[in-house]
From TrEMBL:
The keyword Cell wall biogenesis/degradation applies. InterPro entries: MurNAc-LAA_cat (IPR002508), N-acetylmuramoyl_amidase_3 (IPR050695), SH3-like_bac-type (IPR003646), SH3-like_dom_sf (IPR036028). GO terms for cellular component: outer membrane-bounded periplasmic space. Residues 9-73, 97-160 form the SH3b domain. Keywords: Cell wall biogenesis/degradation, Hydrolase. This is Putative N-acetylmuramoyl-L-alanine amidase. The keyword Hydrolase applies. One of its GO terms (biological process) is cell wall organization. It comes from the Bacteria. One of its GO terms (molecular function) is N-acetylmuramoyl-L-alanine amidase activity. Pfam families: Amidase_3, SH3_3. SUPFAM superfamilies: SH3-domain (SSF50044), Zn-dependent exopeptidases (SSF53187).
Amino acid sequence: MLTLSQSISFAKVVSIDVDELRVRTGPSTAHELIGHVNQGEQYTFLDETDEWVAIDYNGGTGWVSRDYVTITDDQTVTIPSNSDTTSDDTNNQNNISSTFDFKIPVDKLHLREAATTESEILSILTKGDSVVVLEQSNDWVKVNFQDTEGYIPSWILNEQIKINLNQTPLRNKVIVIDPGHGGYDVGAISVHNNYEKNFALNTAKHLQDQLELLGAKVHLTRSDDYYYALTPRAILANYHGADVFLSIHYNSEPQYPSANGINTYYRKSADLALAEFVHQGILETTKANDRGVLTGDYLVLRNSKRPSLLLELGFLSNESEEMLIQSPGYQDDISRGIIIGLENYFYN
C-alpha cells in the first residue's frame, strides 16, 4: 500500500497548460467527451499521436490535444492513497528487486497490455496458470506469461486479501451494478470539474472485475457514457433475478467543502442487514468517515424487487477526497469492502 501521499517517478509526465481542456475517449474531436482538466495539473503519459496525447485519467485512458500540454521526462509527481504505511515499507513493496514465479489463485484474471483497467486484454489467465513476476509498482504487477509481458492487479499477490474460492458464497451469485448517471446526466461535478458519472462507471468496472474473479455473475446497467432511464435499471435487476442490486454514486456539498465520508441507503426493511454488512465492509477497507446507514426513497430502490442498496462513496466537493477517489488503490479498497460486506451478508 502507498502512503497518504507519495512521490513516484515516471518516464513522462503531461502538464496541462490551460483551464477547461477537454478530455476525450479517443484521439479526435469525434470521440466522446469524458471530462476536463485544468492548468497546472499533471497526469501520467500513456500514448500519443501527432495531434493528441493519452493520459491516465480517473484510472482509465483519456485523450487531450497536444497543443495545450507540455510533455516532460523524468518528472516526479505526487499521487494519493489511503494507507498509513511507513515509507520504508512502501519502498520495499513497490520495488521488487528479483523475479519469482507465481501461480494464479483465482478462476479468471485479465492480463492487460498496460497498467490500467481500460487497456487491451492480452490473455485471460485461469487458476493454476504460472506467471513470472517482473516488477511491482503501486497497484499493478508486470508479469511474463508464455513469453507475453503484461500487467495484473497487485492485490492478487497480497496474502491478507486472498480468498478461499471454494468457500466464498459469491460463486454463481447474480449481482447487478448500476453506475449512476451517464451521458448528458453528468451527476455531481467535482472540485476539479470531473463528473460523477465517470467516477461511478470506473468504480462499477473495478467491482465487476473483482466479483467475476470470485465466480459471481455480474451485469452492469450501463457500460458506456450514455444516459439510461432509472426505471429500466431497476427492472434489469428484476429481470436477472439479482441476488443484490447496487447503485453506485458519489456525493457533493459544494457549500460544505470539508464534508467527507460514505453513506449507504436502503428502502425496504428487509434490506437493512445487507446495508449494514456492506457499509461496515467499506469502512473497514477504506477507513472513510462513517456517515451512516439510512433509508432512502430513491426511484431505483423503489422499482427494484430485489435486495437493493444505493451507495454514496465519497464527496467530490472535497478536494482531498476527490484525489483519493481517483487512486486505483482506493478503488480496489472500495471494491474489496463491498465484497467483504456481500460475503458476510450471504454467510448470514
